[in-house]
Amino acid sequence: MGSITLEKVSKSFGTTKVIPEIDLEIADGEFVVFVGPSGCGKSTLLRIIAGLEDATSGAIHIDGRDATREAPAKRGLSMVFQSYALYPHMSVYGNIAFPLKMAGEAKSTIDDKVRSAAGVLNLTDYLDRKPRQLSGGQRQRVAIGRAIVRQPKAFLFDEPLSNLDAALRVNMRLEISELHHQLKTTMVYVTHDQVEAMTMADKIVVLNAGRIEQVGSPLDLYRSPKNLFVAGFIGSPKMNLIAGAAAAKENATTIGARPEHIGLSKTEGPWQGTVTVVEHLGADTFVHADVDDVGPVTARAPGEFLVKHGERVFLTPDAEKIYRFGADGDAL
Amino acid sequence: MARAISTRRKLAFTAIGWLVGLVIFFPILWTVLTSFKTEGEAIASPPHFLFFDWTLQNYFEVQSRSNYFKHMWNSVVISFGSTFIGLAIAIPAAWAMAFSPTKRTKDIMMWMLSTKMLPSVGVLVPIYLLFRDWGLLDTRLGLVIVLTMINLPIIVWMLYTYFKEIPGEILEASRMDGASLAKEIIYVLTPMAVPGIASTLLLNIILAWNEAFWTLNLSAANAAPLSAFIASYSSPEGLFWAKLSAASTLAIAPILILGWFSQRQLVRGLTFGAVK
């Protein structure tokens, strides 16, 4: 069991309030991703759950028990750090065995558990190596191995993939998702990469300047963003946010249209613009255009749609998929 | 980095390096040479550099007049003892300062260092009286205590700079893994800081070995280390240069050998953190 509840948790460093009061429920077995731009307080929030930072006020319940004042070691959580934070003087075996050794388990039990974790993570051949003799991906797997051996109530991941190259990141993303399906343990994952958030999460918590902007499933956030911030943050490429006359026509201060909801044509459409940049990704083509009286707009076209810089194109936003936002930035 | 240096410049630098090295080393060399001369040769003017009658006479006399090995043992106990006790106190102290600093940490560090700026003689009388009343005069325990106190600020400072280089996330990871504070220090911090701890250890053994002010003032016969052993040869009835030199050579030999074997560690320690 690994439910986590935050009740009015806040955090200040000196006089600077980094997290105003936050309430959050994380159900047992859920994969929750905290996402937001750098400096939004997502890592601080994770460290408060871990016990590495004290909350200035509020309470944290883990598994229904008040853990607010408990030391990190007593909370029964495991953490994977961005820098891996492996023990450089210990072998891979020693690193994975460390939490079990600290828990005072018998040597034979430790050996069984380390070997089975190493098996799951393809590390069996590397058990005698030191961390410095491993590649980035292997180090990350050792860090995960160290986290899973003692069967924690929940895993905390602090931007675990940001030190890896792009291809490896995609692989590890799949491995972590798979691990979640196997272990069915609660996972709390911090990232600034909304693609990671969308692909892995059961539930996404979008944070901005310490505040929770919206909580929901990836598709909820994609389909019905509560405000401009979430609308602009979730989805890649970003939603087109258009103010001015085009928005006033829809009775809104700002309107939003996702690139995939804007049709492109060389012959007809309500908006007309000049192509500034074309990005051919093979399956898709992203066309960035400067639309007359609207401003810069990005649209997604099929891969075979061929245009060149400077050409005139017509764009048709899908009327049913236009988001409307009021003066306060909230969705109407 | 890749700057071409002409052979002439290289030669000049090498020559200057050797010259400076020789100037620094000369007093030690002269002491060693004098220890092999007779008393007459030792005060001869002009002095003979290498061409004199080499003799081991001084060494035999020094050994027969005073018990070298007893003094050496005292030196070993005092320098190693004070260094190990100092480390045991300083490791947790430096941990707290490096990984759990408060607003006052910097002030405390500076205050500790400032105690080293106080002339030792300023506190000689109170410490002497305390030692007399507590029965610590001329005991090895007393000298271990006083040298521990004297060198503690340096040990804490050195360890603090090494600990600062260790990423805090690794210690946090050990906390998440269930390590108590003591286990975190024993299993994670200390093994990672071994190079730094080793150079701190060596430097402090050398400092304690060479310490003369406190050892001379607080010891007489029983606990006197090698520094007191040398001093006993600068006697009021006249200087015996050759015997004094023999005593000095014997006193510095062990620490010179220790320093020779650990010079790589020492150099690394003294320049640690200067270049990443």
Automatic annotation (TrEMBL), chain A:
Entry keyword annotation includes Calcium:
no
User: Which residues are the signal sequence here?
Assistant: none
From which organism does this entry originate? Phyllobacterium phragmitis
Q: Which SMART domains match?
A: AAA
Which protein is depicted?
Sugar ABC transporter ATP-binding protein
Instruction: Name the family the entry cites.
Output: Belongs to the ABC transporter superfamily.
Q: Does the keyword Nucleotide-binding apply?
A: yes
Indicate how the chain sits in the lipid bilayer. Peripheral membrane protein
Tell me which InterPro entries the record gives: AAA+_ATPase (IPR003593), ABC_transporter-like_ATP-bd (IPR003439), ABC_transporter-like_CS (IPR017871), ABC_transpr_MalK-like (IPR015855), ABC_transpr_MalK/UgpC-like (IPR047641), Mo/tungstate-bd_C_term_dom (IPR008995), NA-bd_OB-fold (IPR012340), P-loop_NTPase (IPR027417)
Q: Which residues form the ABC transporter domain?
A: 4-234
Intracellular or extracellular location(s): Cell inner membrane
| Principal location listed in the UniProt entry | membrane
What are this entry's molecular-function GO terms? Answer: ABC-type maltose transporter activity; ATP binding; ATP hydrolysis activity
Q: Which UniProt keywords apply?
A: ATP-binding, Nucleotide-binding, Transport
GO-annotated cellular components: ATP-binding cassette (ABC) transporter complex, substrate-binding subunit-containing; maltose transport complex
Q: Please name the taxonomic classification of the source.
A: Bacteria, Pseudomonadati, Pseudomonadota, Alphaproteobacteria, Hyphomicrobiales
UniProtKB/TrEMBL annotation, chain B:
A single GO CC term, please?
plasma membrane
The entry's family comment says: Belongs to the binding-protein-dependent transport system permease family.
Q: How does it sit in the membrane?
A: Multi-pass membrane protein
Task: Specify the protein name.
Answer: Sugar ABC transporter permease
Per its UniProt record, what InterPro entries does this chain match?
Answer: BP-dep_ABC_trans_perm, MetI-like, MetI-like_sf
* Main location per the UniProt record: membrane
The entry's keywords:
Cell membrane, Membrane, Transmembrane, Transmembrane helix, Transport
Q: Does the keyword Chloroplast apply?
A: no
Q: Does the keyword Transmembrane helix apply?
A: yes
What are the ABC transmembrane type-1 domain coordinates in residue numbering?
A: 72-262
PROSITE patterns attached here? Answer: ABC_TM1
What biological processes does GO assign it?
transmembrane transport
Q: Where in the cell is it found?
A: Cell membrane
Whose protein is this, by species?
Answer: Phyllobacterium phragmitis
